[in-house]
């Protein structure tokens, strides 16, 4: 097996141009010295490249030398395996540059030899590698010291309110080493704050920006790279609304310092926006389910690869978000998540809720004699009374199945689940229906019912997706009465959640007048909501979980004075009788 060829490149340098016009100058002398060294090794694997890398008239204090840059480029292209120089100072006179070059050599597996200091700078020998590694230890120490100095300088500069560079934030440009207001963008920033104060909605604020043709900051770096000029995302708007820089502060770690730049919004409006965010956070904590899947548990999405968005005609894929150690799982519209659609009416829906509704409908399909008679019974002769005996015991059979079995049956039965704004459409496989009936009834003749693979029928389920205080819920209203009762209990749950949030804000020092201005709600409604949050905790839990009596609605609570004692409240609202 032939030996691997080692391509050797000789680099030479002279600081001045004096004497370069001679027939045999200093560069030629260095080159010949290195050539003789290669010949003395008498190694047939060594191959001297014909290209010469000569820098005549260039200082060793900089790496910006044409021949050296050509050498580094050839190294990156894999053309050079070993670099040979006359002495180390011909390569560089700066220790930092030396270690930069060593990093390049190590990255591309290039050996390095200094002929005159062969014992100390020769990575082809053990002693040479030892010496280089010793130098690298000192280089690492210097780099870490430099990092500490830079971090200390940044902390000191930010404490003085100075801008420390980078892409300027939206609303500002970079002036004389400081931020100056860009009036056009500053008007848009004020519009963002005002719109959010009016709507209390990040989504609505973002839509207002994008529909008005406003785009993110377009910025060009010194190197000519361009950034921005895109549509605003909700996250971008949220960062603008929560950045203290816009009220004239500079943030370093967890501390804020008065900045040297001018503020775009006043501190009062900024604090009002933060109060709205605090109220939103309180609502989320109030409606957080008690036993969601934690980071250590994996919630299986039963409808993966089956569920589609009917509005975008796109697949819905499993996703999740984290709040602390808790995961909340969703099906998300793929086109919306990939930003192929600006706004999807569905966007995302909780996996547990939609899985529950579809699973309940699957059981309803299996319990339906109509489906059985319509799609199966006419194919084979069988004892109707024996077949219908399955329906009488189906609840017991179903409840005895493990969750994994139920999910398997669901996937065997359904070809597709399509989500619209007001309905869920199930595509049920006829062959799957016959197979499930055969399995549950242990009737082998039913298993022989033949259908085409894609032969299906559809079932449409009316539903209403909304948000109660304990999380997103999917309700399948059966009657107008149930729908009316649902609206009343939903409003009551929302008011209780608001009451909890507003109480906490006032306990934190916010006055009633400031809370009224921040929430755009009159004092009477704020007082009543806080009164609702102080009723018997058992009643509150019942309302938030959707298990309260049918008559207990927001209108009922407004009409009847709330008793002071919890025991009287339980009697009035029918909880004493339920307890018995």
Automatic annotation (TrEMBL):
InterPro entries hit by this protein: DNA_bind_recomb_sf, DNA_bind_recombinase_dom, Resolv_N, Resolvase-like_N_sf, SSR_resolvase, Zn_ribbon_recom_dom
Location of the Resolvase/invertase-type recombinase catalytic domain: 7-161
PROSITE patterns reported in the protein's UniProt record: RECOMBINASE_DNA_BIND (PS51737), RECOMBINASES_3 (PS51736)
Pfam families: Recombinase (PF07508), Resolvase (PF00239), Zn_ribbon_recom (PF13408)
GO molecular function annotation: DNA binding; DNA strand exchange activity
Every Recombinase domain range: 169-283
Protein name, as recorded: Resolvase
The organism of origin for this protein: uncultured Alphaproteobacteria bacterium
Species classification: Bacteria, Pseudomonadati, Pseudomonadota, Alphaproteobacteria, environmental samples
């Amino acid at each position: 097996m032939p030996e691997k060829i080692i391509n050797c490149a000789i680099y030479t340098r002279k600081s001045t141009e004096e004497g370069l016009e001679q027939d045999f100058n200093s560069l030629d002398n260095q080159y010949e010295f290195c050539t003789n060294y290669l010949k003395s090794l008498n190694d047939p694997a060594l191959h001297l490249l014909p290209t010469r890398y000569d820098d005549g008239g260039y200082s060793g204090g900089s790496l910006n030398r044409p021949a050296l840059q050509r050498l580094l480029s050839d190294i990156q292209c894999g053309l050079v395996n070993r670099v040979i120089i006359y002495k180390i100072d011909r390569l560089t006179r700066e220790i930092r540059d030396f270690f930069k070059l060593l990093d390049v050599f190590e990255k591309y597996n290039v050996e390095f030899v200094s002929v005159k200091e062969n014992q100390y700078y020769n990575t082809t020998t053990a002693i040479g590698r030892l010496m280089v590694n010793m130098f690298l230890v000192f280089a690492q120490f210097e780099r870490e010291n430099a990092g500490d100095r830079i971090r200390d300088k940044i902390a000191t500069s930010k404490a003085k309110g100075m801008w420390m560079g980078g892409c300027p934030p939206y609303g500002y440009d970079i002036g004389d080493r400081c931020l100056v207001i860009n009036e056009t963008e500053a008007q848009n920033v004020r519009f963002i704050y005002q719109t959010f104060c009016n709507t209390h909605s990040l989504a609505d604020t973002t839509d207002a920006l994008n529909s008005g043709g406003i785009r993110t900051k377009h910025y060009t770096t010194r190197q000519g790279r361009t950034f921005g000029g895109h549509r605003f995302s909700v996250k971008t708007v949220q960062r603008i609304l929560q950045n203290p820089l816009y009220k004239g502060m500079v943030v370093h770690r967890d501390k804020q310092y008065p900045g040297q730049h001018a503020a775009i919004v006043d501190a009062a409006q900024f604090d009002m926006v933060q109060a709205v965010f605090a109220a939103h956070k309180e609502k989320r904590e109030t409606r957080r389910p008690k036993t969601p899947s934690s980071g250590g548990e994996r919630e299986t999405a039963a409808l993966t690869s089956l569920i589609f968005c009917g509005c975008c005609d796109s697949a819905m894929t499993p996703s999740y978000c984290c709040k602390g150690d808790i995961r909340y799982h969703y099906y998300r519209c793929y086109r919306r998540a990939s930003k192929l659609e600006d706004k999807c009416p569905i966007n995302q829906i909780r996996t547990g809720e939609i899985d529950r509704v579809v699973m309940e409908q699957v059981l309803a399909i299996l319990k339906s004699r109509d489906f059985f008679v319509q799609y199966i019974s006419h194919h084979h002769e069988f004892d109707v009374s024996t077949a219908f005996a399955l329906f009488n015991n189906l609840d017991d059979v179903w409840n005895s199945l493990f969750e994994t079995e139920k999910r398997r049956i669901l996937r065997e039965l359904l070809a597709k689940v399509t989500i619209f704004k007001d309905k869920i459409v199930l595509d049920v496989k006829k062959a799957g229906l016959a197979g499930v009936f055969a399995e549950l009834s242990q009737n082998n003749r039913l298993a022989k019912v033949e259908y085409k693979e894609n032969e299906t029928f559809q079932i449409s389920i009316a539903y209403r997706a909304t948000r109660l205080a304990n999380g997103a819920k999917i309700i399948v209203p059966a009657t107008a009465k149930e729908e009316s009762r649902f609206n009343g209990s939903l409003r009551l749950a929302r008011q209780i959640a608001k009451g909890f949030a507003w109480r906490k804000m006032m306990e934190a020092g916010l006055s009633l007048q400031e809370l009224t201005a921040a929430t755009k709600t009159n004092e009477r409604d704020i007082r009543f909501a806080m009164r609702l949050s102080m009723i018997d905790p058992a009643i509150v839990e019942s309302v938030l979980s959707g298990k309260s009596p049918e008559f207990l609605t927001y209108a009922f609570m407004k009409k009847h004075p709330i008793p002071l004692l919890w025991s009287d409240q339980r009697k009035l609202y029918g909880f004493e009788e339920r307890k018995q």
